[in-house]
């Protein structure tokens, strides 16, 4: 009788879950493959069949953490709404998701911030994807200041509502009302710039 195939996705999910526990316990300072393997009762060599290195595990954790943010961002871009509504959807969607994550588990949120500090390339790839989405939205205004300048302005003006560190530090200020006001200001500036 053939041996049943292992549940690859289930095992990977278990490894990632235990990695998150280790991150929380160490305030994002420690992620050791041998320790994770021991904690879930598998050999380190078997764990390496799923994640060959710590770097691979970090990338998988980042992908899991960033996936929903990138999905929210992409949905705003793909929306048939006018540019002003797409911009607001993009900013509020990101804010709601990050605020909810922080409120649900501040320790895990802070542990991921700590992990990000040592993995700038992974974070950069994520922010590049979000910037491309924002560029697509902003280009719909056809701003006379140029799309690159408009994207920089939009990024600068929305830092409070998008940057995880700011959401932690200024949690009570990162409100929907303030985010909407900033989006309205940006939309007026971008639309007014070309005479609309």
Describe the structure using short key phrases.
196 residues; mainly alpha; single chain; 0% strand; 76% helix
In short:
This protein is mainly α and 196 residues long. It is built from 11 helices and no strands.
Structural class call reads mainly alpha
Q: How far do the termini sit from each other?
A: 73 Å
Percent of sequence in beta strands: under 5%
Largest sheet: none
Along the chain, the helix and strand elements come as: HHHHHHHHHHH
**Tell me, what's the shape?**
elongated
Flag low-confidence runs.
Answer: none
Please provide the count of β strands.
0
Cα radius of gyration in angstroms: 20 Å
How is this structure best described in words?
There is one protein chain. The protein is an all-alpha fold and 196 residues long. 76% of the residues lie in helices and 0% in strands. The termini are far apart.
